Structure formats: C-alpha cells, structure tokens
Amino acid sequence: MTEPAPLSRPQLRRMLRKARRELTPSEQREAARGLYRQLAQHPLFRRARHISLYLPADGEIDPRLLLRAAQRRGKIIYLPVLSAWPRTKMVFQHIRPGEKFRPNRFGIPEPRFSTARQRKVWALDLVLLPLVGFDEFGGRLGMGGGFYDRSLAYLARRKTWRKPTLLGLAHECQKVDRLDQASWDVPLQGTVTDKKWYFAG
Q1: Residue 72 belongs to what H/E stretch?
Q2: 128-154, pLDDT tens digit by residue?
Q3: Beta strands of 65-145 (E only): which ranges?
Q4: Which of 128, 143, 132, 144 lies closest to 188, judged by CA?
Q5: Cα separations in angstroms, 177 against 12, 85, 135, 146
Q6: Alpha carbon of 98 to those of 38, 68, 137: distances in Å?
Q7: In whole angstroms, what is the distance from residue 180 CA to residue 182 CA?
Q8: 194: nearest Cα among 41, 43, 6, 33
C-alpha cells in the first residue's frame, strides 16, 4: 500500500482552521480557561512587563482572560495593528483598559492607529502569537499573510540577545507531527495550549 501524499501548507491550513472553528462555544470557553491556567502564573508571563497579545478570530484560542489579568497586574499590553501603508507591515500598539476597537481589513478588531503608542517589537518582553498549526519543535503555521514573520525577521540575524520571547497559543487539536519550515519562518520558543506546554528543544 502506498503512503498518502503529505498535505500541502494550504491543505493543512484549511484542515486545521476547520478543526478549531468546529469547537463549540462551551469548548472554546473551557479552552480559554485552560490557557489561562497554563500561563497566568508561569514565570515567563509573571516577569514580562511589555506583552503583546491578540484578539481571537476564526476559532483561535482566546487569550482575553490573560489580557485582563495582565492589565490588573499593571503590565503594558500591546495588540498587533496593520499599517495602512505599506499594507504588508504590522506594528505593536499599546492599548488601555476599556479602549474601543474597530475591525481591520480582515475583520479582526484593533485599536485606532497611533504612532505615539507603538513600541518596537525588539523592546517587547513577550509576544503571544496566534497560529493555525504547530509542532513541538518551534514550527508555526500561520494564516499565510506573513505579518509576524516580517515583523520578527530581525531575529534570524541575531546570534545572542534574542528578544522578545515568542510563544504560540493554540488549541490541542492544532498540533501536527512536524511542519516543514520555509526559509522566512521565524521559530517559536514554544507553544502553549489549554492542556500543556511544548517547549522547542
């Protein structure tokens, strides 16, 4: 019997997006609580002062419990914001408690663009990234836009000081055995699900 052909990145992306979208609202709420339990008291989260998170879309695991906990602890929280020009650029912008958001061109809520409230990504302590798929070796499959990879490309040129810490956030159903990594893919230090941590070796 012949081995089935491996899935292409677009095929894998479709399959994993479907899996996370099929989680029920109650499963999503329980996953968000599980993610909070995994991260809220971890030293990486407790020590970080400048943290980037994201607002969930398309079935992504929801980090908003962590966002509110971080704000209560006096941490400074940033969200990724797409630049109007160039359209391929993404920046990290400080948000305030109770701030209102509006949908960007992908329908994802984000704050109104403000250069004065942005911070260079290398000056963040911790970036919690959304993803479509991951493996336990630091591989991340994103939505295909390359926004995080472009923002973090400088890390490939650094040999020693590597900041920020990059952690993917995901549902357990998004784990795959091994992702083929493209030359532009920026590896993660690990991925956290609602069930456990996967530190890249």
Answers
A1: helix 64-72
A2: 999 999 999 999 998 888 899 889 888
A3: 76-82, 90-94, 102-103, 109-110, 118-119, 126-129, 133-134, 140-141
A4: 128
A5: 12, 37, 6, 22
A6: 25, 10, 37
A7: 7
A8: 33
Per-residue pLDDT at 10 exceeds 80: yes
Q: Which two tokens mark 55?
A: 């607002």
pLDDT-based confidence at residue 161 (cuts at 50, 70, 90): low
Q: What is the per-residue pLDDT for 160?
A: 62
CA distance 160 to 174: 31
**193 and 35 Cβ atoms separated by less than 8 Å:** yes
Strand partners, 199: 190
- DSSP annotation of 170 reads E
CA 108 to CA 152: how far, in whole Å?
21
pTM of the predicted model as reported, rounded to 2 decimal places: 0.92
